[in-house]
Amino acid sequence: MTVWWVLVRKEWRELLRSYKLLWVPAVFLLLGGSQPVAMYFMPEIIARSGGMPAGALIEIPTPQAFEVLAQTLQQFGLLGLLVLALAGMGAVSGERIAGTAIMTLVKPVSPTAYVTSKWAALLSLTSIAVAAGYGAALYYTSALFGSVSWKDALLALIIFMIWTCVLITMTLALSAFLGSGAAAAFVSLAAAVVVVLLTGAFPDELHWSPGALPGLASRVLAGEGWPAYGWAPLIAAISLLFVSLAAAVKFGRFT
Amino acid sequence: MMRGGDVLNVTALTKRYDAKTVVESVNFTLSKMRCTALLGPNGAGKTTTIQMLAGLLRPSSGQIRLLGDASDSDPRRSIGYLPQHPAFYAWMSGREYMIYAGRLCGLTRKAASGAAEELLARVGLADAARERIGGYSGGMKQRLGIAQALIHRPKLLILDEPMSALDPIGRREVMALLRDIKRETTVLYSTHVLHDAEALCDDILILRQGELVESGPLSEVRDRNRQPVIVVETENDEASRGWMERWLQGTKADVLNADRVERGMRLVVRDLEAAREALLLDIARAGVRITRLDIGQMSLEDIFMKAVAE
């Protein structure tokens, strides 16, 4: 356990000194803060951008607060995931290529401790970044569009965070299997996008798919509550997370 | 069998990848406070053997036993290992890396910090201890690598080609350091620089295509292979070349083996005294223009070449 903490602290220090702990949350803050502001000024932006025939009447209904937050989560689900995958893609493969992994694993350190310490650090980075961005979105949304039930907002955040944690764990596992970090980032992002698209295309057949989680988060934000069919994708997501982690420990290449 | 003075005992150690056998049935014992060089041409299985000893590779069969260890305990606790190309986190300072390595080996923060201070001073990195490793030279990194391998006071220090990537200055520093370390720790290192091995080690192991072909104390191996060698070099004139040709082709009574070398020839003879006399007389009679005449015993290089030749 002591060894595990030493490894985790090293990972945190690395996140700090490589400025990942700065720029990853910064991207989320930017995404989360700009979405409500952009949506608020959308009618004016369109009106001033020109190109409209004189006298044309534009009716843009003011979106409701929960819709703005749901839109923000969609931004996180694409650009946010890209940034997270980029931050986590070299976790194992980078150390394998540099040769630092072998230096650690020749000490009395188990592959389990080695992989899970990186996992813990990436999860904390993910949580901090998503929570920061979501906090900014929540602040601007309630200032510009009116308040959202904090219970619903919190539940939606938790659901969405689980989805991002699955993605970052998959990126970590792929970086343990694949030769290059870029491949790991690409495969995990592509998998996330495909899963979400497939789940959207076949909502009945794939109602249990982890890709349903972002949709569930939006649903919760709309005040429709947590549905009974929500448990299947949740359990599937958490299983996928732990299967990826176990596979990384068992079959990962470290030397 | 393990004896009192043994640190490591290897029996029938074998590593196979699919159909290819990289290390085959290797047996040897490392004794306490001895420095052993593992020699062999590239691809002979040196790194594979060393990685199995360090616990990085699982042997296909065979046994590795460490002194005083239960057979199921982690060998990494009693071994310090330096890979061929040590890599560090560039963002850490030398001191931070040492403490990190010590803590991974189970030392307390205080013990790790004390050991780090002491070892960094010993390898001459006390002044650079607080600088980022990213700014270290190759020689400094190698010395840091040796220091981090010693942080938990291992019974056995294993180094994979510790000097091959260094410039002459770095090589001299590391040699001096190893000479100092071998007084208190058993050392095993692989190398293909025979000169370094000869200057440093007590025992040698020579691998050829995964098999151990020569082993034992350097002096004993020398005795076993004691064969007088004469090296003659001449100027490149007609008469001298012709004379040398006759020695190379003719079957002079005492010559066991004659090889052409650059600018001359190398003779392995049965009786040094008789051969010396015959050669000197012949040189005087033929008026050969000798530039170099070297009469002596087989060097480690000769033994190595003989051992690895098919």
Automatic annotation (TrEMBL), chain A:
Gene source species: Paenibacillus methanolicus
Keywords annotated in UniProt: Membrane, Transmembrane, Transmembrane helix
Top-level taxon: Bacteria
Gene Ontology molecular function, alphabetical: ABC-type transporter activity
Pfam families attached to this UniProt entry: ABC2_membrane_2 (PF12679)
Keyword Mitochondrion: no
Segments crossing the lipid bilayer: 21-42, 76-98, 119-141, 153-174, 181-202, 228-249
GO terms for cellular component: plasma membrane
UniProt keyword Ion transport, yes or no: no
Record's protein name: ABC-2 type transport system permease protein
Automatic annotation (TrEMBL), chain B:
Domain of life: Bacteria
Gene Ontology molecular function, alphabetical: ATP binding; ATP hydrolysis activity
Coiled coil: none
Pfam families reported for this sequence: ABC_tran, DrrA1-3_C
The keyword Hydrolase is annotated on this UniProt entry: no
UniProt KW keywords: ATP-binding, Nucleotide-binding, Transport
SMART domains: AAA (SM00382)
Residue intervals of the ABC transporter domain: 8-234
Gene3D superfamilies on file: P-loop containing nucleotide triphosphate hydrolases
Residues passing through the membrane, by range: none
Family label: Belongs to the ABC transporter superfamily.
Protein's recorded name: ABC-2 type transport system ATP-binding protein
Source species of the chain: Paenibacillus methanolicus
